[in-house]
Write a structure and sequence with these properties.
Layout: H1 13-35, H2 59-73, E1 77-82, H3 85-93, E2 99-105, E3 117-119, E4 137-142, H4 149-162, E5 163-172, H5 176-183, E6 186-187, E7 202-206
Parallel strand pairs: 1-2, 1-4, 2-3, 4-5
Antiparallel strand pairs: 5-7, 6-7
Helix pairs in contact: 2-3, 4-5
Protein name: EFMT1 methyltransferase
Catalytic activity: L-lysyl-[protein] + 3 S-adenosyl-L-methionine = N(6),N(6),N(6)-trimethyl-L-lysyl-[protein] + 3 S-adenosyl-L-homocysteine + 3 H(+)
InterPro entries: DNA_methylase_N6_adenine_CS (IPR002052), Efm5/EEF1AKMT1 (IPR019369), Mlase_EEF1AKMT1/ZCCHC4 (IPR041370), SAM-dependent_MTases_sf (IPR029063)
Length: 213
C-alpha cells in the first residue's frame, strides 16, 4: 500500500517557525487586549487583511500623518480617511481634540466605529451616502489599496468630491506622475513606514504647504 503521507505538502521548517511565531504574537496580542482594558481604536486592534491589500502604517507614521491632518484641518475641522484606517485609529486616540473624522473603508470590520464608518468601494467612487456632502471635508487622507492607475483615478474622484481643497495621498513612489495628473499633488520629503516592510517604496503626496517636508 502506498504511503498516504506522500500527498501532504510539507511546510519547510522555516515556514513552520514563521507561522508559530505569528500565532504566538497573535496570542500575546489577544492577551494584551484583555489585560490592558484594550483600546479598540489602537493600531492592530483590527488585524490587517492581506487579501484586501491592507498594510498598516507603523505607529510613528500613523501618528505623524494624524497630527498633520489635525493641523491641516484646523480648529473644528473635518477629516476624511479614505482606505487609511490606521490614521483614523490614531486620530481617534486623540479624542477630545477639536476635530471630527470619518472613515471610508471597504473592510466592514471597521463598522465597529459606528456612524463614522462609511462603506466604500473604490470601484464605485461616488456611491456615497447623501449625508456626505460634496466639499465638506477640510482635508482628505487617502491610501488607495492598489498601485494601479485605475485604482488611483477612481479614488481621486472620491477625494475631489469630498475635499474643500487639501489632499494628503499615500501611495507608491512609482505613482508620482499619476498622482500629479489626477490630483495635482507633489511628493513630500516625509517617508511613511509600515509595520511590516513593503516591497514597493512608499511616499506621501500633498497639494498644500504641509509639515511633511
Amino acid at each position: 500500500k502506498m504511503d498516504d503521507d506522500d500527498d501532504i505538502p510539507q511546510l519547510s521548517s522555516h515556514t513552520l517557525a514563521a507561522l508559530q511565531e505569528f500565532y504566538l504574537e497573535q496570542q500575546q496580542r489577544e492577551g494584551m487586549k484583555t489585560s490592558q482594558g484594550f483600546n479598540q481604536y489602537s493600531i492592530g486592534s483590527i488585524e490587517e487583511d492581506w487579501q484586501l491589500s491592507q498594510f498598516w502604517y507603523s505607529d510613528e507614521t500613523a501618528l505623524c500623518l494624524a497630527k498633520e491632518a489635525v493641523l491641516a484641518a484646523g480648529k473644528g475641522g473635518r477629516i476624511a480617511c479614505v482606505s487609511a484606517p490606521s490614521v483614523y485609529q490614531k486620530l481617534k486616540e486623540q479624542a477630545g481634540e477639536d476635530f471630527s473624522v470619518c472613515i471610508l473603508e471597504y473592510d466592514r470590520r471597521f463598522s465597529v466605529y459606528g456612524e463614522e464608518f462609511i462603506f466604500y468601494d473604490y470601484n464605485h467612487p461616488l456611491d456615497l451616502p447623501e449625508s456626505l456632502l460634496p466639499q465638506s471635508f477640510d482635508i482628505v487622507i487617502a491610501d488607495p489599496p492598489y498601485l494601479s492607475e485605475e485604482c488611483l483615478q477612481k479614488t481621486a474622484e472620491t477625494i475631489k468630491y469630498l475635499t474643500k481643497g487639501k489632499i494628503l495621498l499615500c501611495t507608491g513612489a512609482i505613482m508620482e506622475e499619476q498622482a500629479a495628473k489626477h490630483l495635482g499633488v507633489k511628493m513630500c520629503k516625509f517617508i511613511p513606514k509600515h509595520s511590516r516592510n513593503l516591497a514597493n517604496e512608499f511616499r506621501c503626496y500633498v497639494n498644500y504647504a504641509s509639515g511633511l517636508d
